[in-house]
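agent> fetching stored inputs for the pyridoxal-5'-phosphate docking request
agent> found them:
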Amino acid sequence: MEKRIYNFSAGPAILPEEVLLEVQKDLFALPGVGMSIMEISHRSKPYDAIHTEAKANLSKLLGIPDDYEILFLQGGASLQFSMVPLNLMPPKNKADYISTGSWSKKAIKEAKRVGTVNIAATTEEGEGEHKYFKRIPKQSELKLDPDASYVHFTSNNTIFGTQWQTEPEVGKVSLVCDASSDILHKKIDVKKYGLIYAGAQKNMGPSGVTLVIIRKELVERSQDSLHTMLNYKIHVENDSLYNTPTTFGVYIIMLVTRWLLKMGGLDKMYAINKNKADILYRCIDESGGYYKGHAEKDSRSLMNLTFNLSSEALEKKLIDEATKAGYNGLKGHRSVGGLRASIYNAFPTKGVEDLVSFMKDFQKKNG
Ligand SMILES: *Cc1c(COP(=O)(O)O)cnc(C)c1O
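agent> prediction call returned; pasting C-alpha cells
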C-alpha cells in the first residue's frame, strides 16, 4: 500500500485512517448488500440504515435535543450563506453578522442580497490589499439589535487561525453558526443555537455534503415562495431525501461519527485537540520570536494554527523543506501568507510532535 504523509491541509482535509481502511474494504460491496455505497438507491433499506445512523451518531456526540432537525444538504457551506438569510431573515428582513474573517465576509455578502445586514462587530485591520483579522471580538464590542431575525457568527476562522472560545451571548435572538472548520472538535451546547451549518470536508467527511442542524421552530419561517431546493422546510419534510443526497458523503460522516463515539466522544476528542495545539503553540511561543503566531493568544484556533517567520524567503524555505520531508499543506492561505498547520480531529498527535522537532531543527540550522 502507498505510504501516507502528514496532511496539514485546511480542506478537504485529513480523515481517520481507520475510516479510510474500512471504506476501502467495503467499497466493492457493502457487507450483506453485495453492491457498493455508490450504487444503491437512496431510498433503499441499506442506505436508510446509514442515513439514520449518521444522524443518531451526531445526536449522541453533540447532545442534539429532540426539537432540532439534522439535514444533509449540498452546495457546501457557501450555499448556506444564501439559504440562511433566504429562510430565516423574513419577515423582519434584518440580521446581525459578526465579521471575523474571509468566510464571515462571504456570508455577509450573500445576506445583503436578501435584507439589511447590521455588522454587529468586525475585527478587520489593515488597509487595502493588506487587510487581515487576528482576533475574536469581546462580548462588550458587540452592537446587537434585539429585534434582529438572527445573529450569525463563524466559530472558527479557517484562514486566519482564530476561534471563538465560547459562543457570543445574544439574548433571545436566534444564534446561527458557520461551524465548517471546527464542528465536532468539542462538545457544544446546541440549545444555545438556532442553526448550525458545516461543510463536511474539514472535520467530518468528504466535500459535497453539508450538515445543517436547525431548531424545529425556525423551520416555520421558510416561506412557500422559496425555490424548493433552497427551502429548509422541504428538506425537513423529506428527511434530506427530496432529491438524491450525497450518499457517499453521508456514509463517510456515519463512519467518522462512529469512530468518534468509539474513541470516547467529544470531551475526549477535545482533550486530544487541546494537547495537539498546545504542543505547536508552545514551540512557537518558546522560539524566542523566530516563529511568530498570527492570532492573538486569547483568540487562537485549535484547528488551524497560523504563524510567520521573519521573511517570506525563510517561510518558503521551511515550506519547501517540510514538503520534501513529508509534511504537506503547510503553506498559509494566499490572502494571509506565512504558514498554517491544520490539525483537525483526525490529525495524529505524533504528526504534531514530529513537525515541532522539524521546526526546532530548522531554527537551529537557519537561526
Ligand atoms: C471551507 C469553509 C467554507 C466554505 O465551504 P464550502 O463547503 O467550500 O462552501 C465556509 N466557511 C468556513 C468557516 C470554511 O472553513
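agent> quick read of the result: Residues 266-285 form the longest helix (20 residues).
agent> awaiting further instructions
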